[in-house]
Amino acid sequence: MTGEGEEERGNPVLKFIRNVPWEFGEVKADYVLGQTTVALYLSLRYHCLHPDYVHQRLGNLGKDFALRILLVQVDTKNPHDFLKDLARICILADCTLILTWSFEETARYLETYKMYENKPADMLKEKVEQDYISKVTDYLTTVKSVNRTDCITLISTFKTLADIVESPSDQISLCPGLGPHKARRLQATFQEPFLRNRGSEEERREGK
What we know:
Layout: E1 2-4, E2 23-25, E3 31-32, E4 37-43, H1 44-49, H2 53-61, E5 67-73, H3 80-92, E6 96-100, H4 103-115, H5 132-140, H6 148-158, H7 161-166, H8 169-172, H9 179-190, H10 198-207
């Protein structure tokens, strides 16, 4: 992964990028994540003070990249009107808008896009094989709002179900697409006791 030269040298996101190699380079975007994928980083607080900045950056990218991502860190109160404006800008500029709430979460998104750079699309498709990943996915998707893409992200990040279960919710919430609500639901599920179905047991006794 390549980060832009002087503009990105002071970016605190960089110190949280640990799972993929990166280097500085002279590029139009803040981050080059592949041959056809780039990302711009934008603090919402900075956008409030300098609303023309994002237009200039998107304009400089041109149409050279198939996937252009705008990573917006929500770091101001009452962000809704500003986010609506950014959503409109991204639609008109054919740009993907992703919101984050911390430098760590921003770094996780960048790492994930880079790690999946050369992965085939069928990695995200449903598979019928009963291998380890399939079994873990079937278990995790029983948790409300957790989908298969979330499961792939969790397995790629933590490697095993045991590591996922033992990870604190704040660490899980940093994974792209998860967030605090899904993380809390996962932790609540992991902490539930395994109970025998009393209704079924009583029915068996009555049948005797």
